[in-house]
Structure to design on (619 residues):
């Protein structure tokens, strides 16, 4: 029989972080190792700006939203003073999760266990029967943990636990200009993200979303199912057919903004006549007819061209992805497990019919394109469990002139197939891990 | 009324149902539900499409309360055209997410059936069914289960019943769910 008292655990030393990314290759442990993952949650999700919510999700004073940020539950609140707060969802008394609903309107949060109560700016405003804590008990020492910084860019609310981060606009750099262009595509610059979300659980590391986000190399291979189905059923020239050539000779380009942010700009490869080149969506005939009944042909055409996505894939490190008609976040759960939440967007300044078509369009790529992406990420995760082969090659385009060249804003402009954006986010990743 | 107005009204209509019809009607409905389950589990998706009307809607809301397609994105909302896209995509062999293809076995229970009436918002002569379904899927890992309340609107015709609506209320409709790409 085993003597349980004599069992000895030999600790495995954590990998040397400075050697996990070597510029042209990245080590598999970056995707599979628990100690790396722990450090990512502390130093990246706890150390830089992270995306929290879209302003339209909490428009009224006292509105709140709970979101997972690198393993922590965070309550994002809209205070009566108009400021946003990002509060750690944990009672300061004995650690109980305070708020169990994902969205709502509340001035205060009261712990179900012993009734400790907090205002929605995080102040501790009530401790029942405090006498036995002693005369020197100060409830203001028990305010909720909160993010040190909150700021908004183009309707997107970001927060950081790190008080020493760069100002948000500096952190975003030239990416802020692209976010502005994305917002201004909406009439009046008004976007809402209150139309529910698609939620996907991925058996893969969160960075696999990043490896894919500005990668134009994979599209013709991974999405052949979508392109060929569309061509066979609806004729050529729709959907992702603009990827169907040598990816280094296409008009569209990718950008590496620095600090991990990336942009795959499909607009140069897409015809102005967006609606005519979109895959057909349910409800189109009657909704288009209804628009024509009430509005001029010119307006209808302008609005219908807003139905397909912006063709701007903007990725803000570490957890915001804008693509199609969606605002998506990645939520790391474990080294090999990630949740993605994709909020559908609508434009409040266009007729309802246009938004209904936008919602149907938001369901399209995620049903016929994204599943094949996710399959690739999950196969990658399984491949990376093999210990004998250590490295992933990310050197495509490395050292070529466009890879090296940065404009006055620090932005690289490169063919969509190059791995420059991967190297860009991995450089930021490594810098933050070593913080 | 647009299609999406109708779909929203039907969600309400199903909620207001009282007692279902008796055993002969339930037995007839069960026959069609079991046939559908068999076609899907045998991957006879073209035959399954033949069981659907031209105005079919295959809908998986992303909201626990049933959802309003005018205001919310869905997990799936297919009209006939997009449903044919889906079947084509699955059967093409080109989708990596269906390589290997999903094997499924579904259990259909708690079958109730009603005929249409004023309150339901569906056309005269239609039959409504509500069933509880557990769909077991196997691809590359361990078997996984989807659990759902499934509401059908059937149109009886000279050569049998046809599916006009199939609405799938997943137990985890508003939660993160794996990359399930088969027809539920």
């Amino acid at each position: 029989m085993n003597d349980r008292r004599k069992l000895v655990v030999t600790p495995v030393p954590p990998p040397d972080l400075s050697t996990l990314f070597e510029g042209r290759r990245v080590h598999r442990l970056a995707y599979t190792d628990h100690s790396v993952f722990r450090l990512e949650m502390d130093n990246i999700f706890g150390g830089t700006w992270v995306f929290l919510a879209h302003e339209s999700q909490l428009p009224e004073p006292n509105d709140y939203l709970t979101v997972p940020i690198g393993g922590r539950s965070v309550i994002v609140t809209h205070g009566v003073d108009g400021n946003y707060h990002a509060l750690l969802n944990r009672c300061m008394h004995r650690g109980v999760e305070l708020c169990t609903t994902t969205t709502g309107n509340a001035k205060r949060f009261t712990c179900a266990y012993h009734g400790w109560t907090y205002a929605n700016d995080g102040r501790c405003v009530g401790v029942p029967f405090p006498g036995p804590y002693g005369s020197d008990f100060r409830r203001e020492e028990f305010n909720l943990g909160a993010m040190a910084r909150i700021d908004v860019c183009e309707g997107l609310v970001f927060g950081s636990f790190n008080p020493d981060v760069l100002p948000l606009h500096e952190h975003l750099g030239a990416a802020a200009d692209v976010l502005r262009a994305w917002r201004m595509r909406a009439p009046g610059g008004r976007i809402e993200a209150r139309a529910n979300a698609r939620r996907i659980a991925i058996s893969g590391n969160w960075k696999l979303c990043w490896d894919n986000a500005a990668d134009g190399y994979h599209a013709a291979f991974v999405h052949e199912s979508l392109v060929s189905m569309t061509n066979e059923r609806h004729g050529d020239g729709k959907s992702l057919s603009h990827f169907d050539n040598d990816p280094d000779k296409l008009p569209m380009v990718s950008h590496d903004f620095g600090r991990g942010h990336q942009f795959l700009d499909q607009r140069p490869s897409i015809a102005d006549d967006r609606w005519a080149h979109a895959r057909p969506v349910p409800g189109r005939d009657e909704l288009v007819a209804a628009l024509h009944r009430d509005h001029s042909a010119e307006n209808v055409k302008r609005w219908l061209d807003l139905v397909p996505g912006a063709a701007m894939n903007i990725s803000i490190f570490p957890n915001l992805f804008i693509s199609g008609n969606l605002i998506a976040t990645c939520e790391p759960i474990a080294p090999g497990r990630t949740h993605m939440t994709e909020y559908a967007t609508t434009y409040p300044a266009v007729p309802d019919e246009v938004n209904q078509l936008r919602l149907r369009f938001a369901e399209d790529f995620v049903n016929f394109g994204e599943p094949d992406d996710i399959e690739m990420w999950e196969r990658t995760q399984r491949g990376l469990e093999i210990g004998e082969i250590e490295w992933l090659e990310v050197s495509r385009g490395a050292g070529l002139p466009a890879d090296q060249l940065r404009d006055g804003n620090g932005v690289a402009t490169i063919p969509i197939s190059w791995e420059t954006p991967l190297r860009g986010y991995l450089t930021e990743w490594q810098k933050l891990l070593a913080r | 009324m647009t299609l999406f107005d109708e779909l929203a009204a039907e969600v309400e209509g199903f909620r207001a149902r009282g007692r279902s019809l008796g055993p002969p009607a339930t037995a007839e409905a069960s026959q069609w539900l079991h046939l559908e389950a068999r076609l899907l589990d045998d991957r006879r998706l073209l035959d399954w499409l033949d069981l659907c009307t031209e105005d079919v809607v295959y809908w998986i809301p992303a909201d626990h309360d049933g959802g309003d397609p005018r205001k919310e994105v869905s997990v799936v909302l297919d009209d006939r055209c997009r449903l044919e896209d889906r079947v084509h995509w699955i059967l093409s062999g080109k989708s990596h997410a269906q390589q290997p293809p999903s094997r499924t076995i579904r259990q259909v229970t708690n079958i109730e059936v009603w005929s249409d009436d004023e309150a339901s918002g569906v056309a005269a002569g239609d039959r409504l069914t509500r069933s509880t379904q557990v769909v077991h899927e196997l691809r590359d890992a361990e078997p996984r289960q989807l659990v759902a309340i499934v509401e059908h609107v059937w149109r009886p015709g000279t050569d049998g019943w046809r599916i006009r609506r199939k609405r799938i209320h997943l137990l985890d409709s508003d939660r993160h769910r794996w990359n399930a790409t088969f027809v539920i």
Summary: Chain B touches chain A at residues 2-4, 57, 62-63, 67, 69-79, 81-82, 84-86, 88-89, 92, 94-97, 99, 141, 174-179, 181 (CB under 8 Å). The CA atoms of residues 106 and 156 of chain B lie 24 Å apart. Chain B has four helices and six strands. The domain at 3-170 of chain B is CATH 3.10.450.50 (Nuclear Transport Factor 2; Chain: A,).
